[in-house]
Amino acid sequence: MAMSDLLARYVKQAPPVARDIGDAWKEAAGRYAAASVVLRTSRNGVVTVACADASVAQEIAARSERLGEALERAAGIPVRGMRVVIADHALPADGPAPTPPPGPPGEAARAAAAGIAAQVEDEQVRAAIERALAADLQRRWTR
């Protein structure tokens, strides 16, 4: 008997190599993939998903059965369950940098906001609306 035959009796055969689970998660989770990351799968097929936001975690948990089935199809591995955790520290830092807050509104944004809010009679309300509009216009114009 050859040594390879003998070893084959005692060494478990590795399962077929599945696609990278991270890529499969992006495909299966769609819009939830950007706010979460698959950390690992356990031996018994439970997939752990880390989310930075509790609302995203709740959505994923509510859809875990369908997401698990989609992940199973996409990754080619058995998924018996999903464990969703809130762990923003587990999310990779190499993603896109967060958008910096916009600077103060420019003169054009303030003038446009003043024109839009001109019909508001209450001075304090008008000033608050102008500030909010100017900031929103500046943010839209600088994207």
Structure description:
The chain is of the alpha+beta class and 143 residues long. The protein folds into two domains: 16-90, GMP Synthetase, Chain A, domain 3; 107-141, no CATH class. The chain contains six helices and three strands; from the N terminus they run H-H-E-E-H-H-E-H-H. It has helices at residues 3-10, 21-29, 54-62, 64-75, 107-117, 123-141; strands spanning 36-41, 46-51, 81-86. The protein has a three-stranded mixed sheet. A hairpin with a 4-residue loop joins strand 1 (36-41) and strand 2 (46-51). Helix 2 packs across helix 4 and helix 5 (107-117) crosses helix 6 (123-141). The longest helix is centred in the C-terminal third of the chain and has 19 residues, at 123-141. It is elongated. The relative contact order is 0.12. Residues 10-18 have low confidence and may be disordered.
Count of individual helical segments: 6
Helical fraction equals: 40-55%
Number of strands: 3
Number of domains: 2
β-strand percent reads: 5-15%
CATH H level, superfamily name of the largest domain: DnaA, N-terminal domain
Judged by helices, strands and strand pairing, the structural class is alpha+beta
CATH class of the largest domain: Alpha Beta
Categorize the overall geometry. elongated
> Stretches where pLDDT falls below 50 for ≥5 residues?
10-18
- For the record, the CATH architecture of the largest domain stands as 2-Layer Sandwich
**What's the arrangement of strands in the largest beta sheet?**
1-2-3
The name of the CATH topology of the largest domain is: GMP Synthetase, Chain A, domain 3
- Cα distance spanning the termini: 70 Å
Note the run of SSEs as H and E. HHEEHHEHH
Mean pLDDT: 78
For the biggest sheet, the summary is: 3 strands, mixed
Rg calculated over all Cα atoms: 26 Å
